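<purpose> Linking amino acid order to shape
<body> The protein record starts here
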Amino acid sequence: MPEIVHIPDPAPQHLRARPRTQPTVLTVAGSDSSGGAGIEADIKTITMHGCYAMTCISAITAQTPRAVDAVRATPAPLLAAVLRGLFRDMAVDAIKTGMLTPAAVDCLLAALRDHRFAGPLVVDPVMAASSGSPLTDLAGPAARALLRRAALVTPNVPEACRLLAAQPPASPDGLVSLAQALARDLSTAVLLKGGHCPYPPDAVLDVLVDPADPAGPVTFCARRLSTPHTHGTGCTLAAAIAANLSRAMSLREAVYRGIIFVHHAIALQPERSVCALPENGPVHHAYALNLSSPATAPEASRKATCPDTATPTPPL
């Protein structure tokens, strides 16, 4: 007779601690075969925030942190069928978008309209991979309509400059001005990610401009980490913010917590990267699983020097 191994039930205290509901996030984005960005990064991030991830894959990419070698777009009828089924049969609390094809933009706009979606939409206007490989162009009227429909748009500096046909800012004040200009142009909230800017040299500034917030722009300042492994940071940040918004956080708190998640995912990477490339690699989405107390933030070895012109982050 074979050995019988009994599987234990969850402990009573764990059963009592079950949540009554689980927030859901739909991500509409491209697939990254290396797992560091796109749909794969979104699923990991959403799951690490205790939310349920659903997907609509706009395109399949042959991609690593070094380059995007090939892209195959999902046909519009399949995109429409995926979205139709999700909105029909699943609860969709928040939506995050990443790499979008023209067909994905059209299908998503139609789904938002047909199903009267009223939850938060976070649009990461992905135009190129972190390796520099071009992906999509969001200059068309349909894409602009989607950007204006968003609760938050999260461009980096090159993307913001492209959307506005503007020159890169030359100072922290210029970063704030660029974020304000894009928020005015789109009539929606903008989080301008400053990781591409070399100033200040030991800090990264992200600027949130929310037209609905009378307090004005908020600049979040994080220590600039010395690592090449930042593949998928934009996808991860937008997904984290969408997950936080699905939990009914305020926009400022959702952004603040999202930036912390990405900062720690970069800082707490394994000593040996999963990527064989020295020039780029993914962040560690599951870093919190290795912490004895995930709620305890690690202290930085040194504080970032934020410029006086940057608006300080108020306590939440």
User: Anything to note?
Assistant: The first helix runs from residue 12 to 16. The chain has nine helices and nine strands. The beta strands are 24-32, 52-63, 68-73, 94-97, 121-123, 152-153, 189-193, 203-209, 218-223.
